[in-house]
Amino acid sequence: MIWFSKQQALSTSTKLAKFRLRQGFTVSDFAELIRVNPSIYFMGLYSNIVPAIQALRVIMGCEHLVIRILAKSRRLRLSEKTIESKRKVFRSFGWTESDIATLSSSFPPVFGLTEATIKKKLDFFMNKLGYKPSFLSKRYNLLTYSLEKRILPRHKTLIVLKEKGFIKMDYLLESSVSMTESRFLKKFVLPFKEVHGVYSQHAGISLELLTLGSSETNSKAA
Q: Which of 4, 74, 96, 189 is most buried, taking the most CB atoms under 10 A from its CB?
């Protein structure tokens, strides 16, 4: 743990107070920023904090969005270049400025995702599933989960269940993605031997464990 001397703490607090006034933050806004990001005391004021805020102001073009993003974000190591490069990825998939603003205001960590990750997820949801930007921008949780470890295994499982008539054809993937692993297994995998192999293959869970879990579920039901 890093400790400040009284003099260092006073000096840092004075600098941050002056910074708050220059940047136009209210006391409550700045208090929330420090509460969420206590590490701000250890960041360079002009090497990290100011560039991040200036970049967000230029890119977002709206003060209240900047404050919301800063209040929700755990990191301030952003730059105008990195943010803009990721915004270009969204625009290449047909996202409007309004779509991007909606997503980033509710899910600030989106700018922390790599460009490759953003492309991969947008390609899956938009090109393979046909989701529209207006739909995805309001359902940021779909972009927070691992594509390989969570989304694809559940997607493949639901497809088989629909084909075999075990669930309705209009059941949405987003409804299952937010479920805990245990709940998803209990509801969509363990009761149906037809999907054990599919889920095992894509989720990396041994078929033996699924079979054992299915037996235990059936015995409890009996």
A: 189
